[in-house]
Amino acid sequence: MRVEELLRDRGLAGFGDSLVNFLYSLAATRKYGRPMGLKVGNRALAEAVRRSKFRELLPRRVDRKTMGDYAEALIAYAWLRRLVTTDSCVEILAENVDSPVDAFTDLLKTVMEALKGHEGEDC
Amino acid sequence: MRVEELLRDRGLAGFGDSLVNFLYSLAATRKYGRPMGLKVGNRALAEAVRRSKFRELLPRRVDRKTMGDYAEALIAYAWLRRLVTTDSCVEILAENVDSPVDAFTDLLKTVMEALKGHEGEDC
Protein backbone atom coordinates (compact mmCIF):
# COMPACT_ATOMS: atom_id res chain seq x y z
CA MET A 1 0.00 0.00 0.00
CA ARG A 2 1.31 3.44 -0.95
CA VAL A 3 0.16 6.19 1.31
CA GLU A 4 -0.75 8.45 -1.63
CA GLU A 5 -3.39 5.93 -2.66
CA LEU A 6 -5.28 6.29 0.59
CA LEU A 7 -6.89 9.60 -0.36
CA ARG A 8 -6.91 9.10 -4.13
CA ASP A 9 -10.67 9.13 -3.95
CA ARG A 10 -12.74 10.26 -0.99
CA GLY A 11 -14.42 6.87 -0.67
CA LEU A 12 -11.91 5.22 1.62
CA ALA A 13 -11.86 8.13 4.10
CA GLY A 14 -15.67 8.32 3.85
CA PHE A 15 -16.09 4.66 4.63
CA GLY A 16 -13.40 5.02 7.30
CA ASP A 17 -15.36 7.81 8.98
CA SER A 18 -18.38 5.55 9.48
CA LEU A 19 -16.14 2.60 10.47
CA VAL A 20 -14.15 4.59 13.04
CA ASN A 21 -17.24 6.04 14.75
CA PHE A 22 -18.84 2.60 14.82
CA LEU A 23 -15.74 0.89 16.26
CA TYR A 24 -15.30 3.56 18.90
CA SER A 25 -18.99 3.50 19.87
CA LEU A 26 -18.89 -0.30 20.11
CA ALA A 27 -15.74 -0.16 22.25
CA ALA A 28 -17.43 2.25 24.71
CA THR A 29 -20.64 0.19 24.63
CA ARG A 30 -18.77 -2.99 25.56
CA LYS A 31 -16.54 -1.31 28.10
CA TYR A 32 -19.39 0.35 30.00
CA GLY A 33 -22.00 -2.33 29.41
CA ARG A 34 -24.53 0.13 28.03
CA PRO A 35 -25.06 1.45 24.51
CA MET A 36 -23.26 4.68 23.65
CA GLY A 37 -22.80 6.62 20.44
CA LEU A 38 -19.49 8.44 20.15
CA LYS A 39 -17.92 10.44 17.36
CA VAL A 40 -14.18 10.72 16.95
CA GLY A 41 -13.03 14.20 16.02
CA ASN A 42 -10.20 15.18 13.68
CA ARG A 43 -8.32 16.75 16.58
CA ALA A 44 -7.95 13.37 18.33
CA LEU A 45 -7.22 11.49 15.11
CA ALA A 46 -4.59 14.02 14.02
CA GLU A 47 -2.86 13.80 17.40
CA ALA A 48 -2.92 9.99 17.19
CA VAL A 49 -1.31 10.23 13.74
CA ARG A 50 1.42 12.48 15.16
CA ARG A 51 2.15 10.00 17.94
CA SER A 52 2.40 7.00 15.64
CA LYS A 53 4.93 6.33 12.91
CA PHE A 54 2.20 6.95 10.36
CA ARG A 55 3.03 10.67 10.55
CA GLU A 56 6.42 10.04 8.92
CA LEU A 57 4.77 8.61 5.83
CA LEU A 58 2.50 11.61 5.21
CA PRO A 59 3.32 14.82 3.34
CA ARG A 60 5.10 17.35 5.57
CA ARG A 61 2.48 20.07 5.32
CA VAL A 62 -0.90 18.61 6.00
CA ASP A 63 -3.75 20.11 8.02
CA ARG A 64 -5.64 18.47 10.86
CA LYS A 65 -8.65 17.52 8.76
CA THR A 66 -6.47 15.79 6.17
CA MET A 67 -4.55 13.95 8.90
CA GLY A 68 -7.89 12.71 10.27
CA ASP A 69 -8.88 11.57 6.78
CA TYR A 70 -5.60 9.69 6.40
CA ALA A 71 -6.15 7.92 9.73
CA GLU A 72 -9.70 6.93 8.78
CA ALA A 73 -8.59 5.77 5.34
CA LEU A 74 -5.72 3.67 6.75
CA ILE A 75 -7.96 1.92 9.28
CA ALA A 76 -10.60 1.32 6.58
CA TYR A 77 -7.96 -0.05 4.18
CA ALA A 78 -6.74 -2.64 6.71
CA TRP A 79 -10.25 -3.54 7.89
CA LEU A 80 -11.63 -4.04 4.37
CA ARG A 81 -8.69 -6.34 3.59
CA ARG A 82 -9.45 -8.26 6.80
CA LEU A 83 -5.96 -7.60 8.19
CA VAL A 84 -7.71 -6.47 11.37
CA THR A 85 -11.13 -7.56 12.61
CA THR A 86 -13.94 -5.61 14.23
CA ASP A 87 -13.32 -7.45 17.52
CA SER A 88 -9.56 -6.87 17.55
CA CYS A 89 -10.03 -3.13 16.85
CA VAL A 90 -12.73 -2.82 19.50
CA GLU A 91 -10.55 -4.58 22.07
CA ILE A 92 -7.69 -2.14 21.45
CA LEU A 93 -9.95 0.93 21.57
CA ALA A 94 -11.73 -0.28 24.72
CA GLU A 95 -8.46 -0.27 26.67
CA ASN A 96 -8.28 3.53 26.52
CA VAL A 97 -11.80 4.42 25.56
CA ASP A 98 -11.80 7.56 27.73
CA SER A 99 -8.80 8.92 25.87
CA PRO A 100 -9.46 8.85 22.14
CA VAL A 101 -5.91 10.02 21.39
CA ASP A 102 -4.36 7.06 23.25
CA ALA A 103 -6.98 4.65 21.91
CA PHE A 104 -6.38 5.62 18.27
CA THR A 105 -2.62 5.86 18.67
CA ASP A 106 -2.67 2.19 19.74
CA LEU A 107 -5.03 1.26 16.92
CA LEU A 108 -2.90 3.02 14.28
CA LYS A 109 0.20 1.20 15.55
CA THR A 110 -1.56 -2.16 15.33
CA VAL A 111 -2.91 -1.39 11.86
CA MET A 112 0.54 -0.39 10.62
CA GLU A 113 2.05 -3.60 12.01
CA ALA A 114 -0.68 -5.63 10.31
CA LEU A 115 -0.02 -3.87 7.00
CA LYS A 116 3.72 -4.39 7.32
CA GLY A 117 3.24 -8.10 7.98
CA HIS A 118 0.87 -8.31 5.04
CA GLU A 119 3.20 -6.55 2.63
CA GLY A 120 5.99 -8.82 3.79
CA GLU A 121 3.90 -11.80 2.77
CA ASP A 122 3.34 -10.32 -0.65
CA CYS A 123 7.04 -10.11 -1.37
CA MET B 1 -38.81 -5.60 24.45
CA ARG B 2 -41.23 -2.72 25.08
CA VAL B 3 -41.02 0.06 22.58
CA GLU B 4 -40.94 2.73 25.32
CA GLU B 5 -37.64 1.33 26.53
CA LEU B 6 -35.92 2.02 23.22
CA LEU B 7 -35.53 5.74 23.86
CA ARG B 8 -35.40 5.60 27.67
CA ASP B 9 -31.86 6.85 27.43
CA ARG B 10 -30.23 8.35 24.34
CA GLY B 11 -27.50 5.73 24.28
CA LEU B 12 -29.28 3.14 22.17
CA ALA B 13 -30.27 5.63 19.47
CA GLY B 14 -26.75 7.11 19.63
CA PHE B 15 -25.11 3.75 19.14
CA GLY B 16 -27.73 2.96 16.50
CA ASP B 17 -26.79 6.09 14.57
CA SER B 18 -23.18 4.92 14.22
CA LEU B 19 -24.29 1.34 13.51
CA VAL B 20 -26.79 2.31 10.80
CA ASN B 21 -24.34 4.56 8.93
CA PHE B 22 -21.68 1.86 9.13
CA LEU B 23 -24.01 -0.91 7.89
CA TYR B 24 -25.28 1.24 5.03
CA SER B 25 -21.76 2.33 4.03
CA LEU B 26 -20.59 -1.29 4.11
CA ALA B 27 -23.57 -2.39 2.02
CA ALA B 28 -22.74 0.22 -0.65
CA THR B 29 -19.03 -0.64 -0.46
CA ARG B 30 -19.73 -4.32 -1.08
CA LYS B 31 -22.35 -3.70 -3.73
CA TYR B 32 -20.19 -1.36 -5.80
CA GLY B 33 -16.85 -2.96 -5.01
CA ARG B 34 -15.29 0.31 -3.88
CA PRO B 35 -15.29 2.04 -0.50
CA MET B 36 -18.08 4.53 0.11
CA GLY B 37 -19.21 6.48 3.15
CA LEU B 38 -22.95 7.10 3.32
CA LYS B 39 -25.13 8.69 5.95
CA VAL B 40 -28.75 7.74 6.38
CA GLY B 41 -31.03 10.70 7.04
CA ASN B 42 -34.04 10.88 9.33
CA ARG B 43 -36.28 11.48 6.35
CA ALA B 44 -35.49 8.04 4.89
CA LEU B 45 -35.59 6.29 8.26
CA ALA B 46 -38.93 7.89 9.18
CA GLU B 47 -40.45 6.82 5.85
CA ALA B 48 -39.12 3.28 6.38
CA VAL B 49 -40.75 3.25 9.82
CA ARG B 50 -44.07 4.33 8.26
CA ARG B 51 -43.89 1.52 5.70
CA SER B 52 -43.16 -1.17 8.27
CA LYS B 53 -45.37 -2.41 11.09
CA PHE B 54 -43.03 -0.70 13.52
CA ARG B 55 -45.06 2.50 13.04
CA GLU B 56 -48.07 0.93 14.76
CA LEU B 57 -46.06 0.39 17.94
CA LEU B 58 -44.95 4.03 18.26
CA PRO B 59 -46.82 6.92 19.86
CA ARG B 60 -49.31 8.51 17.48
CA ARG B 61 -47.75 11.97 17.43
CA VAL B 62 -44.08 11.67 16.82
CA ASP B 63 -41.85 13.83 14.65
CA ARG B 64 -39.49 12.69 11.94
CA LYS B 65 -36.36 12.98 14.08
CA THR B 66 -37.89 10.84 16.82
CA MET B 67 -39.03 8.25 14.29
CA GLY B 68 -35.45 8.08 12.98
CA ASP B 69 -34.18 7.64 16.54
CA TYR B 70 -36.66 4.81 17.12
CA ALA B 71 -35.50 3.05 13.94
CA GLU B 72 -31.83 3.38 14.92
CA ALA B 73 -32.54 2.21 18.46
CA LEU B 74 -34.52 -0.82 17.28
CA ILE B 75 -31.79 -1.94 14.88
CA ALA B 76 -29.14 -1.40 17.58
CA TYR B 77 -31.20 -3.35 20.12
CA ALA B 78 -31.46 -6.40 17.85
CA TRP B 79 -27.83 -6.19 16.69
CA LEU B 80 -26.41 -5.89 20.23
CA ARG B 81 -28.43 -8.97 21.23
CA ARG B 82 -27.02 -10.80 18.19
CA LEU B 83 -30.51 -11.44 16.80
CA VAL B 84 -29.19 -10.07 13.50
CA THR B 85 -25.58 -10.06 12.31
CA THR B 86 -23.57 -7.43 10.49
CA ASP B 87 -23.50 -9.64 7.39
CA SER B 88 -27.23 -10.36 7.38
CA CYS B 89 -28.04 -6.63 7.73
CA VAL B 90 -25.56 -5.67 5.01
CA GLU B 91 -26.99 -8.27 2.64
CA ILE B 92 -30.51 -6.88 3.08
CA LEU B 93 -29.41 -3.25 2.68
CA ALA B 94 -27.28 -4.06 -0.38
CA GLU B 95 -30.34 -5.32 -2.28
CA ASN B 96 -31.77 -1.78 -2.45
CA VAL B 97 -28.77 0.30 -1.63
CA ASP B 98 -29.80 3.05 -4.05
CA SER B 99 -33.10 3.50 -2.26
CA PRO B 100 -32.50 3.98 1.46
CA VAL B 101 -36.25 3.95 2.15
CA ASP B 102 -36.69 0.50 0.59
CA ALA B 103 -33.45 -0.77 2.08
CA PHE B 104 -34.38 0.24 5.63
CA THR B 105 -38.00 -0.83 5.26
CA ASP B 106 -36.72 -4.33 4.51
CA LEU B 107 -34.22 -4.19 7.36
CA LEU B 108 -36.84 -3.02 9.88
CA LYS B 109 -39.15 -5.86 8.81
CA THR B 110 -36.37 -8.41 9.29
CA VAL B 111 -35.40 -6.95 12.65
CA MET B 112 -39.01 -7.05 13.86
CA GLU B 113 -39.34 -10.68 12.78
CA ALA B 114 -36.11 -11.55 14.60
CA LEU B 115 -37.36 -9.82 17.75
CA LYS B 116 -40.73 -11.59 17.52
CA GLY B 117 -39.03 -14.97 17.18
CA HIS B 118 -36.78 -14.16 20.10
CA GLU B 119 -39.62 -13.07 22.37
CA GLY B 120 -41.51 -16.21 21.41
CA GLU B 121 -38.56 -18.28 22.59
CA ASP B 122 -38.56 -16.47 25.90
CA CYS B 123 -42.13 -17.50 26.71
List the helices and strands and how they pair.
Two copies of one chain form a homodimer.
Chain A: H1 11-32, H2 42-51, H3 54-57, H4 64-80, H5 86-95, H6 100-122
Helix pairs in contact in A: 1-4, 1-5, 2-4, 2-6, 4-6, 5-6
Task: Give me a quick take on this structure.
The first copy, chain A, is mainly α and 123 residues long. Chain A has helices at 11-32, 42-51, 54-57, 64-80, 86-95, 100-122.
Q: Tell me how many strands of chain A there are.
A: 0
Percentage of residues in DSSP E strands of chain A? under 5%
Distance between the termini of chain A: 12 Å
Number of continuous helical runs of chain A: 6
CATH superfamily of chain A: Ribonuclease III
Oligomer: homodimer
**Protein structure class of chain A:** mainly alpha
Spatial extent as radius of gyration of chain A: 14 Å
**What's the CATH C level of chain A?**
Mainly Alpha
Query: Would you give the CATH topology of chain A?
Result: Ribonuclease iii, N-terminal Endonuclease Domain, Chain A
Shape of chain A: globular
Q: Percent range for helical residues of chain A? A: 55-70%
Tally of structural domains of chain A: 1
